[in-house]
Amino acid sequence: SSPGKPDVQKDALYQSLGGMPGIERLVDAALTQVHGDLRINLFFENTDLADLRRLLIEQICQASGGPCTYTGRSMEEAHSGMNLSEADFAAFVEDLIAAMNTVQLAESTQQQVLGLFGPMKPQVVGQ
Ligand code: HEM
């Protein structure tokens, strides 16, 4: 890339997600899915969902190359004391996939989102 010009590659995923409105729709769909998921919804019973929503939007926006800065805690810190299992993580990923289908993300975009979240598993599980 050259100085003063936006890098077309860097925010490609952000664009595929539909920018901020698209990310907001995705996070809302994911939170709805998790809320209805009896396997994991009790983890969220004392969580401020407006706060979580804002932080998830920031995180996905930043990770996809968008113009945001994630202001939340590290993944280790955010999930510490929960002792989340592999099964909890798998349920969360299933809910995320259902949400991505709800907002009709293209398959290649879905794969890229899963590629962002998958590597965080060691920071989330067993903390
Ligand atoms: C890669 C997967 C995951 C990502 C990217 C993620 C992301 C986040 C983020 C950004 C926060 C807010 C951090 C903060 O409060 O500063 C958070 C909090 C939380 N996450 Fe996750 N999370 C993941 C997996 C999971 C799973 C599998 C569960 C449970 C099944 C879970 C349950 C929670 C709960 C309950 C909170 C709220 C904590 C509180 O109320 O203080 N997360 N997560």
TrEMBL record:
Keywords: Heme, Iron, Metal-binding, Signal, Transport. InterPro entries: Globin-like_sf, Globin/Proto, Hemoglobin_trunc. SUPFAM superfamilies: Globin-like. Gene3D superfamilies: Globins. This is Group 1 truncated hemoglobin.
